[in-house]
Amino acid sequence: YKVYNVNEKNKETESTLQFIDKRLGSLTGELTEAEKNVEGYKSSIGLTDISSKSAYYLQNVSLNDSRMNEVNVQLNVIGEVEKFANSKDAGSVPATIGIADPGLVGLAAELSKLQLQKDKLLAITPAANPIFDALDEQIKSTKQALKQNVQGIKSSLLSTKRQLSKVDNKFEGAIKSMPGQERQYVSIKRQQGTKESLYLYLLQKREEVAMSYASTLTDVHTVESAFARPMPSKEPFIYTIAFLAGLIVPAGFIFGRQAFKNKILTKREIEKATSVQVISEIIHEQGIVPIVIANSRNSSPIGEQFRALRTNLSHINHNHEKGRVILFTSSISGEGKSFVSSNIAVSLALSGRKTIVLELDLRKPKLTQIFKLNTEVPGVGDLLSGTASKEKVVQQTNQHPNLYAMRAGGPVDNPSELLESQQMIDLIAQLRNEYDNIIIDSPPLRLVTDAMILAPLSDMTMYLIRQGYTGKEELEFIKQLEDDNALPNLKLIFNGLDNDRYGYGYNYDNR
Q1: How many angstroms separate the CA atoms of 46 and 48, rounded?
Q2: Secondary structure (3-state) at 146
Q3: CB count, 10 Å around CB of 475?
Q4: How far is Cα 420 from Cα 94, in angstroms, rounded to an integer?
Q5: DSSP symbols for 390-459
Q6: Are 38 and 135 in contact, with CB atoms under 8 Å apart?
Q7: What per-residue confidence (pLDDT) applies to 504?
Q8: Quick one: average pLDDT of 272-298?
Q9: CATH topology of domain 267-502
């Protein structure tokens, strides 16, 4: 029974491993052949090196190809999940490899749990039992939620793929201008690099899945075997439990530390990895309300930190005393960009600066809830689609007379296309003439390219990193953004710092 219990839990993991192994098997031969082609071509023409310009294009197109590979793998995975969500079959949820969306992962886990519960009941209960009616309804509703979630992720991935394809077309044009032999070499080398990056990506995912597979434990344990003799002394059992506890507790502590090893924990780690300035550090407070700066007399530690950030912003880009556009983004969801952007907007308004907040995360808007905006008023999506005027979408917030907002509006099918439209350019130009500060809350850069589209319209970029949450690998991504000068006046905000460790225990005003 214990073996059956573990096997049922591992069904989804086994499906993932089979998917990866099948793909790795086909890639191994293709990669070997591609490497032979590279070496064969170099030998045939006696090529030892290529020009720095060709090397530059090769490096950048390889990075773009690597990202395109990840998106294609994710699209294949999401396609299988979509087929399952649309079918009436029971079965196991397909593998969700590479999809980091918490909603999808949670729904897949819930669906697997419900299916496992149903399978266990079927083993001991007739199918006609009314208990299955409620269970089937839960499975049906969870599948429907999964279907809606998949559609949103698929739309986002397709938008990202279109943006990557545009970048790819630009590099294709540049490669065509190379000398003949170098152009041919870059083409062959690019094919080999594409297969190699995909192979390494799948290999990494396989290791992660294999560790999950190996660590699966049954929730059924034999505490004590049946016996007919008088009950023996409990001392050996107690000593055994104490011994196991002595092993498990330290092991759990070590495992917990290992889990945080790959997360950013200190400002020093950021400064060692990149030269981008950390302009502010924001502490984390349990049970905090979304808007922490209710008035100018608020003297809490986190309130003072937002005032310090406001002061630091005033020292950047002095040329824009009016109409300053500040873009807020991050690597992944959950790093606090909406929380920080909304509070700095309130702080700027309290200082007497006329400020407007644009909710341009059109896929997962949060500012409407934070500022309790009127949902019956049209939003930016409606404005950019041509169904509403600017005067109708601007709302004055309840936080301060100087603070205004534009909510995202209803769902749109083409958020990226709307953001790179001429209407968006015209909107920012109009707002520069009417407001001192324009705060843009944009989506995470790792998920979609919306922030990159908005970057040319902005004067500075505030990039959020969250302590104990953001992975260290994101520092390399930030360094690449800095090297490519992809975001204007790029600055970092270290968010969610541990209040006790950070050492804030003072208060300016105890009245």
Answers
A1: 6
A2: helix
A3: 20
A4: 35
A5: HHHH-EE-SS-TTEEEE---S--S-HHHHHTSHHHHHHHHHHHHH-SEEEEE---TTT-SHHHHHGGG-S
A6: no
A7: 44
A8: 82
A9: Rossmann fold (3.40.50)
